[in-house]
Amino acid sequence: MNTITTVLLEQLLRFKKNGVLAVCYALLLEFLFIGYIGFAGLFTLEMLLPTFVTARLSLTIFFLYLLSGSLLLAFLGSVLDMRFSWNIQKNHPLIWIGSLWALALFLLSLIHFPLSSIPLIILALFTIGFLFWNIFFHE
Predict the structure, then answer these.
(1) What's the pLDDT at 86?
(2) Which of 16, 49, 82, 101 would be 77's cystine partner, CB 3.0–4.6 Å?
(3) What's the rounded Cα separation, in Å, for the pair 136 and 88?
(4) What is the rounded distance in angstroms from the CA atom of residue 137 to the CA atom of residue 116?
């Protein structure tokens, strides 16, 4: 068992020296970016037309592939000592587009709840949103 890990570690270090890991990291990053955008589009389509997407492919398996790719990207980033800084700006258009998209999906999903529980769900959403806003944008 020890020899297998040493051989794999030597192979990983050789790939790092050759630049193969950096190329794999960049390609995986692009793939995940496109994959998450595609997942958001498929999820939106599934919310608007139920079973239109899930009759053909499983969004759960697609999301698990994206999640495992993200974990692999984090591992490659730790091997290559590459980090992304969290430089989120409040007035960036993607923040507002993403917020409006999430709000639209949330309101669309509230149709199926009883009228008495909708205010509690909205109150919980705003509370959690306020907490996340303070965590990410606290100055």
Answers:
(1) 64
(2) 82
(3) 8
(4) 33
